[in-house]
Amino acid sequence: MFHVPRRAGNHPRLALGFLVVLLITVIGLIGWGTLRKPHDPAEGTVESLPPRPPVEVVEQLPELKAQLDRWGGSGQFTGGVLVAKGDQVLYRQVHGWADRSPMKPLALNSRFRLASVSKQFTAAAILRLQDDGKLSVDDPVCKYIQPCPAAWAPIRLHHLLSHTSGIPDLMARPGWGLRRVTPATPEELTADSMRYGLQFPPGTKVRYDNAGYNLLGAVVETITGMGLHDYLQQAFFKPLGMTDTGYDDGQSDVVMGYANLAA
After folding, report:
1. Is 116 part of the annotated catalytic residue set?
2. Which range marks the domain in which residue 173 is found?
3. Model-level pTM?
């Protein structure tokens, strides 16, 4: 899964979707009576750990709000902030803009593009299929991607999951600044990856790689016969009641993403 922004612009801090910052202060995590020392038959009893001391709560919320207002007004921050004490919400507010043309303020029900956070869902899909006996993370990539370059023969699915495949990242390729705002199919992205040799032998280095997760999405589609977004809805989002999570469906409450094309 690789989410591209809808609109080009020169906003370096807003590249590939806005970042939601969630600040949660958890107070009073005490009374861990169920956490016990290993049982010693000679003692005859099991002691509980002592209560944990309460955590300091954020008290200067006016200063916090003032700082976030400054950042939001200057375009340095767009997102939602939550400060809570147990079940009590002390501060919940959004700052910045959902769209800059026209100027549309962010709302509490605005939805954000997840960008690379979406990788966890692609990885979960692969692991679910492994649990279902449909694949193994030790399988060769070429078992599911055809045609497959000879250089990819040593690559296993776990190499794609762990960013150790050696396949060059999309963002390191010529012309990516413009291409990242152009929608592409999994087939097109896979074909593009085949044009480049490996940067290192699989498993010898770790290098962050969007291309590997594009290929994992293609593997999911090959095995299930479904689009990746359809499989995620069926396997995860719908059963878990994640009604605000999924691929962009064009609804008006999705925050506009921007990209710095000079990058």
Report:
1. yes
2. 116-243
3. 0.68
